[in-house]
Amino acid sequence: MAICSPSSESSSATSGRAWIVHALVAGAAVAVGAHAAAYFKWFRKGRSRVVGIIPARFASSRFEGKPLVHILGKPMIQRTWERAKLASTLDHIVVATDDERIAECCRGFGADVIMTSESCRNGTERCNEALLKLGKHYDIVVNIQGDEPLLEPDIIDGIVRALQGAPDAVFSTAVTSLKPEDGLDPNRVKCVVDNHGYAIYFSRGLIPFNKSGKVNPQFPYLLHLGIQSFDSKFLRIYPQLPPTPLQLEEDLEQLKVLENGYKMKVIKVDHDAHGVDTPEDVEKIEALMRERSIS
């Protein structure tokens, strides 16, 4: 899986590799109030130190204990951790959890673990708490979803480099092509971007939605991949931002960022999403791994 950043439409057309969708300038002076000037000074500084954090919780309405489910003999969170370790941009990787069962499992296969509060409302807040407890300075925090055991390390490197290359950005994430059959699946989050590659909106519903009410197989719908990276200073601000109506309605963390006026840099990658959302997905992942001779 490759990622590249086009300098023009022609160079993009001649490239057979994945392309980077341009994005992001930070807005929301309202959110930072009188501190806006100081806030934007942060963006001019280098972002060399990067930590990857895998937030994990045991409780889940759809799939309780999901991080510990075995995928061909290994806990899923171990497989995610092993994939993340292949990324070249990460200086350190930790698992952030509020459950001792997950912590014990992770320590058993050699992962560093940070215990976080049960009060964390989402993975982003868990990443923020873990960052504070690490006690070390990092410029970028990568929130790595623990339910993508086949995540490509190139995607991690791609969103990190995208944020490093955009000093006025606070957030970066990745999308890939949406399969038509997944168009109406609420577990597959869709994304739309403007002509400059800025994220316009994320939804569990099909976006854009045409007046026929059907999926258009010719339209290049985008599927959001859960992985995202933050400027570490912005991550500390994030928990202070109140929940927003769209975020609560869609149950999507990234909408709070958009609703508060910030914009996101998005990269588009050539990657088949293989997330584990339900117990039924485990068999699908294992079958795919056998096809690819992944042990």
UniProtKB/TrEMBL annotation:
<dbReference type="InterPro" id="IPR003329">
    <property type="entry name" value="Cytidylyl_trans"/>
</dbReference>
<keyword id="KW-0472">Membrane</keyword>
<comment type="pathway">
    <text>Nucleotide-sugar biosynthesis; CMP-3-deoxy-D-manno-octulosonate biosynthesis; CMP-3-deoxy-D-manno-octulosonate from 3-deoxy-D-manno-octulosonate and CTP: step 1/1.</text>
</comment>
<comment type="similarity">
    <text>Belongs to the KdsB family.</text>
</comment>
<dbReference type="GO" id="GO:0044281">
    <property type="term" value="P:small molecule metabolic process"/>
</dbReference>
<dbReference type="GO" id="GO:0016020">
    <property type="term" value="C:membrane"/>
</dbReference>
<keyword id="KW-0812">Transmembrane</keyword>
<keyword id="KW-0808">Transferase</keyword>
<dbReference type="GO" id="GO:1901137">
    <property type="term" value="P:carbohydrate derivative biosynthetic process"/>
</dbReference>
<keyword id="KW-1133">Transmembrane helix</keyword>
<keyword id="KW-0548">Nucleotidyltransferase</keyword>
<protein>
    <recommendedName>
        <fullName>3-deoxy-manno-octulosonate cytidylyltransferase</fullName>
        <ecNumber>2.7.7.38</ecNumber>
    </recommendedName>
</protein>
<dbReference type="InterPro" id="IPR004528">
    <property type="entry name" value="KdsB"/>
</dbReference>
<dbReference type="InterPro" id="IPR029044">
    <property type="entry name" value="Nucleotide-diphossugar_trans"/>
</dbReference>
<dbReference type="Pfam" id="PF02348">
    <property type="entry name" value="CTP_transf_3"/>
</dbReference>
<dbReference type="GO" id="GO:0008690">
    <property type="term" value="F:3-deoxy-manno-octulosonate cytidylyltransferase activity"/>
</dbReference>
<dbReference type="GO" id="GO:0005829">
    <property type="term" value="C:cytosol"/>
</dbReference>
<feature type="transmembrane region" description="Helical">
    <location>
        <begin position="19"/>
        <end position="40"/>
    </location>
</feature>
